[in-house]
Amino acid sequence: MKNKWAIILGCSTGHGAAISKQLASEGYGIIGFHLDRGPIKKQAQALEKEIHSLNEGKVKFWNENAADKETMLIRVQEIKSLIKDGYVKLLMHSIAFGSTTNFFQPSPVKQRQMDMTQHVMAHCLIYWAQALLDEGLLLKGSRVLGLTSEGSYKAMEGYGPVGVSKASLEAVVRQIGWELGNKGITANTIQAGITATRALTKISDNWEEWVEETKKRNPMKRLTTPEDVAGLVSLLMSDKADFINCSTIFCDGGEHRSI
Description:
Largest sheet: 7 strands, parallel
Strand order of the largest sheet: 3-2-1-4-5-6-7
Helix content: 40-55%
CATH superfamily: NAD(P)-binding Rossmann-like Domain
Oligomer: single chain
Mean pLDDT: 94
Distance between the termini: 43 Å
Low-confidence stretches: none
């Protein structure tokens, strides 16, 4: 394999962690960003060590806000030095951080909450793609991927700001793929089904009920796992996926087709 790297924005747990391990096992270098304290910080450190053993040490994690533009511009220069003659095969947006509340009652969302959620969970991907492209790190065959959810088109309790950001992420990714397609760079979103990750527990106090109801309505009678999504990302890295662009790809066992 040529010197190919994956940048995972949101790498410490859930989908980001599974994607990092999957691609590291295939020989990709992994650059990860997370923003964690306490036990989750230790979990991220353990993951970095595990990846180090999987891909001969081609790994670098930063525990800082990947959505901060100044931080991004500094790290992009360091990334360029780190990967030397390589390039970024994958820019993956897997950040799950936003305001989980309603527009109105019982806790009306504030403008700063909406603005933050939109930037972190959608808009920051634009600036990452711009910076990497400007530095010649996104090349023909590179992929830009984002994780969306059915909340992008369904209204849900406590999901207003995040649902809007997921719809925005889909539009951002679609536009990236439309503008960069002539360079051989593709961009797509992956809609995973309900997954029992740390992020799910932040959305609703009733998340355990969601889990049980999802198992009933999913045609395959189980939840989506981070490993399911990591497997799809692995498939999309193949040259055989070069013509898949500006699309939303479902990885949910058919869950989105059920009521």
